[in-house]
From TrEMBL:
<keyword id="KW-0472">Membrane</keyword>
<dbReference type="InterPro" id="IPR007507">
    <property type="entry name" value="Glycos_transf_N"/>
</dbReference>
<feature type="domain" description="3-deoxy-D-manno-octulosonic-acid transferase N-terminal">
    <location>
        <begin position="43"/>
        <end position="220"/>
    </location>
</feature>
<dbReference type="InterPro" id="IPR038107">
    <property type="entry name" value="Glycos_transf_N_sf"/>
</dbReference>
<keyword id="KW-1003">Cell membrane</keyword>
<keyword id="KW-0808">Transferase</keyword>
<dbReference type="InterPro" id="IPR039901">
    <property type="entry name" value="Kdotransferase"/>
</dbReference>
<protein>
    <recommendedName>
        <fullName>3-deoxy-D-manno-octulosonic acid transferase</fullName>
        <ecNumber>2.4.99.12</ecNumber>
    </recommendedName>
</protein>
<comment type="pathway">
    <text>Bacterial outer membrane biogenesis; LPS core biosynthesis.</text>
</comment>
<keyword id="KW-0448">Lipopolysaccharide biosynthesis</keyword>
<comment type="similarity">
    <text>Belongs to the glycosyltransferase group 1 family.</text>
</comment>
<comment type="function">
    <text>Involved in lipopolysaccharide (LPS) biosynthesis. Catalyzes the transfer of 3-deoxy-D-manno-octulosonate (Kdo) residue(s) from CMP-Kdo to lipid IV(A), the tetraacyldisaccharide-1,4'-bisphosphate precursor of lipid A.</text>
</comment>
<dbReference type="Pfam" id="PF04413">
    <property type="entry name" value="Glycos_transf_N"/>
</dbReference>
<dbReference type="GO" id="GO:0016740">
    <property type="term" value="F:transferase activity"/>
</dbReference>
Length: 436
């Protein structure tokens, strides 16, 4: 793999193309049902077949493809910055989930629109490319859809893998198919990784070293989460002067540990309030049952309740309000980490001024947490007792807590230079004029 000559398609790639054609009717039925169940109009559902529901704008079009909510939102700040530097550039975001489409619509940068991506079949992808004719394609994190990549490259669209992150399991799987891995990675003109480990993995998988550029995690420079000031004022007024800590993005099997820690904390801090925000709001009933079983009083956000002076747990089982909760308290435990789930984005609470407590199962952010822990911006715990001790220390020793918050803020501010470098690298690949 060298220069601009793509590696040759492999037998495995050909088999994939054949298999995708065979299973496409079943895949279409499944994804269409999910979108229809969400209440989307048929025009939008058919975007998965490559049928556009919007016209193609006249300027140079930069296409971002992301998997779901986190990946989609991570590129909005980048898009905004690129739009400021390239005044004629238009933007298209594709993502597969209705939730991501809904949240993107609320935070859409100028000259940007959203579509659902085509299924990875020849017909759907070609239909999509024929309509949109992107001048640059940017695939976010680990979205390696073979036909989407190959057919876009064949259509003359330069491609970038941005914020690249691959699990160890995924890397090992690709290494067993080196020719196909090399062929797929050769579709990219540039691969910008989250960290040096991913850069090394991509090179080991066959990516050309001169196309790999280690970067930082895009989520570290995303715009802060929105804050609903009216809600914040009401909740803050209801809680009063009581201390508050937050357990955010918790999963099944984690709330028990959080509630055990809270029970211990109440022994020394009887007026302490826990704001519990499950990762999936539909788990509200299960979370409430756990709170009740723990013998704690509960008020539930999804029922329009506010925390009273005697509320020990405020269950925030709603979508899109986490930014408001981070504005309520800078003392945050971030879930997805007490079990081997991989952890969640620590940059969102830090952008709001918080310091972060995490469990040990944060492998998706391992390098980030190693650096944050070394700086004193994050604390790692492995049990309910350790969680209670860490929350107590930050409650009782404000100087230590403020130092952790300051370290987190300094870490975030250092990431902006990386964003500017990424913008320059992407714009350098954008043709000076719209391709015919």
């Amino acid at each position: 793999m060298s220069g601009n000559t793509p590696a040759r398609p492999t037998l495995l790639y050909s088999l994939y193309c054949g298999a995708s054609a065979l299973i496409s009717p079943f895949a279409w039925r499944k994804v269409a049902a999910k979108l229809r169940d969400y209440g989307l109009p048929e025009e939008r559902v058919r975007e998965r077949l490559g049928h556009a529901s919007l016209p193609r704008p006249s300027g140079r079009l930069i296409w971002f493809h992301a998997a779901s909510v986190g990946e989609s939102l991570s590129v909005l700040t980048l898009i905004r910055r690129m739009g400021e530097q390239a005044a004629d550039a238009e933007f298209l975001i594709t993502s597969g989930t209705p939730t991501s489409a809904e949240l993107i619509a609320k935070r859409m940068p100028p000259r940007c629109r959203h579509q659902f991506p085509p299924l990875d079949t020849a017909a759907a992808v070609d239909r999509f490319l024929t309509h949109w004719h992107p001048d640059l394609g940017v695939f976010v994190e680990s979205e390696l859809w073979p036909q989407m990549l190959v057919r876009a490259r064949q259509a003359g669209c330069p491609l970038v893998l941005l914020n690249a992150r691959l699990s160890d399991k995924s890397v090992e799987g690709w290494k067993k198919r080196p020719d196909t891995a090399r062929f797929i990675l050769d579709q990219f003109d540039l691969l910008v990784t989250q960290n040096r480990k991913t850069a090394a993995n991509l090179q080991a998988m066959g990516a050309a070293p001169d196309r790999i550029r280690p970067g930082s995690n895009l989520k570290a420079v995303s715009a802060p989460l929105p804050v609903d000031q009216e809600t914040l004022t009401k909740v803050r007024g209801s809680i009063g002067d009581r201390p508050v800590w937050i357990a955010s993005s918790t999963h099944e099997g984690e709330e028990e540990t959080v509630l055990e820690a809270h029970q211990a904390l109440l022994q020394q801090h009887p007026d302490l309030c826990l704001l519990l925000a499950p990762r999936h709001p539909e788990r509200g009933d299960a979370a409430e049952a756990l709170v009740t079983a723990a013998g704690l009083s509960c008020a539930r956000r999804s029922r329009g309740m506010l925390p009273g002076q005697a509320t020990q747990v405020y269950l925030a089982d709603t979508l899109g309000e986490v930014g408001t909760w981070y504005a309520l308290s800078p003392l945050v435990f971030l879930g997805g980490s007490l079990r081997e789930i991989g952890g969640h984005n620590p940059f969102e609470p830090m952008q709001a001024g918080a310091a972060v407590i995490t469990g040990t199962g944060h492998y998706n952010f391992a390098e980030t947490y190693a650096e944050l822990s070394a700086l004193g911006a994050a604390a790692e715990i492995g049990s309910a007792g350790e969680l209670a001790d860490q929350v107590a220390e930050w409650l009782e020793k404000p100087d230590i807590f403020q130092a952790a918050r300051d370290a987190a803020g300094q870490f975030i501010s250092r990431q902006s230079d990386q964003l500017d470098q990424t913008v320059d690298a992407l714009l350098a690949l954008l043709p000076p004029q719209r391709r015919p």
